[in-house]
Design a protein that fits this description.
Length: about 90
């Protein structure tokens, strides 16, 4: 399986688009978005035999990490950690 440039460019575009959206959100909206994405995340994606589901889970984790990083920059790291722990326990 070779390097998929189309997939790479798509991920880069989505990440840049997401970054722009994150910068435009206020703190409450960003926390709400983070919580909604945590609720929707497939915590068992890594066990899937379906590569689409696995790749979707990987992209979801990347998005969650990007949001968590932005929350940390805004001094909301503790709130982000608390939310993550709340939903991560459902594994």
């Amino acid at each position: 399986m070779g390097f998929d440039t189309t997939k790479w460019f798509k991920q880069q575009y989505l990440n840049e688009s997401l970054a722009q959206d994150l910068l435009n959100m206020d703190d409450a909206s960003l926390l709400s978005t983070y919580e909604n994405k945590l609720k929707a995340h497939d915590w068992y994606y890594y066990m899937s035999d379906d590569s689409r589901r696995y790749n979707s889970g990987e992209m979801s984790i990347k998005t969650l990490n990007d949001i968590k990083a932005e929350l940390g920059k805004r001094g909301l790291a503790d709130e982000a950690k608390e939310l993550f722990s709340k939903y991560e326990k459902t594994r």
